[in-house]
Specification:
Keywords: Membrane, Transmembrane, Transmembrane helix. By secondary structure, the chain is mainly alpha-helical. It is globular.
């Protein structure tokens, strides 16, 4: 599919992938700095940080790699975007946390939270729309859907409830931001993904000599 695209479309795919992954890491860092609650997977990541002493980004990379190994029995195969996702999101989180100051006052924390959620929706639209492979957590969901026959909604909800519960028990941050993310991320991705999806151009019609 990628080889069938013009070179400018291929370049855009990779640029959009890298931008999306970098912004996804930044969105996580914004929510972490807001200290108002994280999305379910980041609650899990933060819980592991509390017990290992590793950085948030390193934990994100390790979890992504372990989840991707879980694709094997599900007969899922990663794309180059999947491999980039495992590494670049974690790197971006740590770099962003090093550069972002902690917001002072509730209004600034709310702004960080809202900005992080919206940015996450846009970043997801970017890297998914690039069409170079799903993220490891998305691939786990689609693999389980294919193997169990369950609905995407049911499988996704089950996964996120499970990681949220484990993350909470490990000491991850659950709060109003967790609820805000759960309510907003679906509509945001629904809005951004069609705008960012890269599709192959329609072939030019053949001219028939009269």
């Amino acid at each position: 599919m990628i080889d069938m695209l013009p070179s400018d479309h291929r370049t855009r795919r990779f640029v959009q992938l890298f931008v999306g992954l970098a912004l996804y890491g930044l969105s996580s860092a914004l929510m972490i700095r807001a200290q108002l609650g994280l999305d379910p997977w980041d609650v899990f990541h933060q819980g592991l940080v509390e017990h290992t002493g590793l950085s948030f980004g390193v934990i994100t990379i390790i979890v992504g790699a372990v989840v991707m190994l879980g694709w094997i029995p599900l007969r899922q195969w990663p794309g180059i975007g999947t491999l980039c996702n495992v590494v670049l999101v974690g790197v971006s989180v740590d770099v962003s946390l090093a550069l972002l100051p902690a917001p002072s006052g509730l209004p600034a924390r709310i702004a960080f939270l809202a900005g992080g959620i919206v940015l996450c929706g846009f970043a997801t639209g970017c890297y998914v729309g690039a069409g170079l492979g799903p993220g490891p957590r998305d691939g786990l969901m689609t693999g389980l859907v294919a193997r169990t026959g369950g609905s995407i909604r049911l499988v996704r909800t089950g996964i996120e409830i499970a990681v949220l519960a484990v993350g909470f028990l490990l000491g991850g941050s659950v709060g109003v931001g967790t609820l805000a993310y759960a309510l907003a991320i679906g509509p945001l991705v629904h809005f951004f993904l069609p705008l960012m999806k890269i599709t192959a151009p329609e072939p030019a019609p053949e001219h028939v000599a009269s």
